[in-house]
Structures are given as structure tokens and as C-alpha cells.
Amino acid sequence: MFENFSRYLLDKAAFTTTELNQIKAVSHIIKVQKDELFVQEGNIWPYNGFVCHGLVRSFTIDYYGNECTLNFVPADYWIGDRASLLTGKPVSFSADAIEESHILLIEQTDFHELCKKLDTFNTLMIGMIQKNIQITQKLINENISMNEKEKYCRFLDKYSAVAHRIPHDMIASYVGATPDVLTRIQKSLSK
What pLDDT score was predicted for residue 83? Predict the structure, then answer.
């Protein structure tokens, strides 16, 4: 599975074989079964995670005990809680696998060392964090200003490659609708 991560890195920047070997030396892969929780809200998250294969989601539980899906993370995307990494405070969400997934993990101390030693890796990570901040700000604005139908259309646009693999109730949770309301939205869009 490291080959998937290596391919991702090489697609983003010109890493040498030596640099890739240094990254591989501090990486380990976990296999997460469908519906298995691998990030638990309230725990400390010490890793930078990358989905090599599969599909996962992050979610939280609201006051009423309902799951609120925050994000879907397909292969070739990062997963984790940067705030927990930076502050050492507990994670504010949980994450589970929608289907069997392989996740590459790099402990934060090793990640910092890679950033110090490998300029290419450091530059890539700075760019990734900057892009993530922009995406997060846009998502917050959209979640405040969009209705459920608009959020569903955004979901289809953002997750078009994996939408068919995500259960209906999780999509409904992501757009802030009940499954019945999502069904009505889907019917109205298919007309």
C-alpha cells in the first residue's frame, strides 16, 4: 500500500528514491474493516493519516444522539485532526470505514522530522495545509448559507467519483437532511 502513497507524492512533487525510502521508514499501514472505528472522539490523535485504499468518513454525535457526517475521505486524501496534533487536545470527531480501507499513518514526531529533513516534503505539506484552510473556510460559509438541496448538489460535485459507494443515510446526514427529505431532493433533481 505504500506504493499508493508514493504515487501520490510523486504526482505532487519530485521526490528522490532516497526521500521516498525515508518516508516509508516512518510509515505504517493499518487495515480498517467496514464500519470499524479508527478515530474515537475524545481521544488524542497522534498521526497524520492518508487513505491509500477504500473510503472513510468523519462524523460527530449531536446532542440528540444523531450521527452528523462531517466529511468523506476517499483514497488519495488525508485524514486526521490537525487541531489535536498541534494542541495535544482530544479529537472532536470520530472516523470509521465505509468499506474496507488501508490507511497509512505517520506519527506526528516523525512527520515533523520529515518536514525538517526533506524540503520537498515540507513544501508539499505547507501547500496542503494552506489549501485545507481555504477549503475549510469555504465549507463553513456554504454550510451556513446553503439549503439541503444545494448541499446535496455540492456533495454530488465534490464526491462524484465515490457517491455511489456511500450509504443513503450518511449522505443525508452530510447534507443536514433526514433520509426521507434526501429522497425527495433526489427525486426533484431527477425530473
Answer: 86
Alpha-carbon distances of 78 from 15, 30, 41, 52, 105, rounded to whole Å: 19, 14, 18, 9, 10
- Residue environment code for 10-42, b if the CB has 16+ CB neighbours within 10 A, otherwise e: eeeeebeeebbebbeeebeeeebeeeeebbebe
The predicted structure's pLDDT at residue 57: 97
pLDDT at 29: 97
> Phi, psi (5° rounding) for residue 138?
-65, -45
Query: Per residue in 74-109, pLDDT tens?
Result: 999 999 888 888 898 999 999 999 999 999 999 999
pTM, two decimals, is 0.91
**Could you tell me the three cell numbers for 78?**
488525508
When the pLDDT of each residue in the chain is averaged and rounded to a whole number, the result is 94
For residue 50, what pLDDT is reported?
97
Please give, one letter per residue, the 3-state secondary structure of 52-89.
EEEEEEEEEECCCCCEEEEEEEECCEEECCHHHHHHCC
